[in-house]
Amino acid sequence: MLEQQIYSIESANINQETLAAMKNAGAAMKAIHGKMTMEDVDVTMEQLREQHELTQEIGNAITSMPITEPIDDDELESDLAALEQEKLDEQMLRTGTVPVADALGGRALPAVETGPVKGKNKVPVREEEDDEEEELRRLQAEMAM
């Protein structure tokens, strides 16, 4: 019963504060609107519409006359493809080396003799370099496509 009385008093206070706020808002709006008339609003709105139409006409005039050559979609696509390829090339160059020890689970590779392999014909160094250069040129030509 006491809680109900407290709730009723709180509710009455909230209602009183709400009514006071509404009266203050009404007075503020009356003060603001006191200097305005519907005729003033109509004139202002008409001026805004005229300026908006003028802005649209100016925009249409600017966009209807091409200043530069038309854009070639094929050229743009080829430029994009070249940029993507360049980015991919850069990424491939930054990949680094393959961590062999990690791939083996931390185990070391077995020791082997170093030197020429017996029974194999050794390709002359100059011929080997020419083959590598030729392969490099073919790869570069493929990447340029």
Q: How would you sum up this structure, described in words?
A:
There is one protein chain. This protein is an all-alpha fold. It is built from five helices and no strands. It has helices spanning 2-33, 38-64, 73-93, 100-103, 125-144. The longest helix is centred in the first third of the chain and has 32 residues, at 2-33. The model has no long low-confidence stretch (mean pLDDT 82).
Write the layout of secondary structure elements.
Elements: H1 2-33, H2 38-64, H3 73-93, H4 100-103, H5 125-144
Q: In short, what is this structure?
A:
By secondary structure, the chain is an all-alpha fold.
* Mean of pLDDT: 82
Strand content: under 5%
Question: Whole-Å distance between the termini?
Answer: 88 Å
- How is the main sheet built? none
The Rg value, from CA coordinates, equals 41 Å
Structural class: mainly alpha
Helix content: over 70%
Number of strands: 0
User: Please, how many helices?
Assistant: 5
| Residue runs with pLDDT of under 50 for 5 or more positions | none
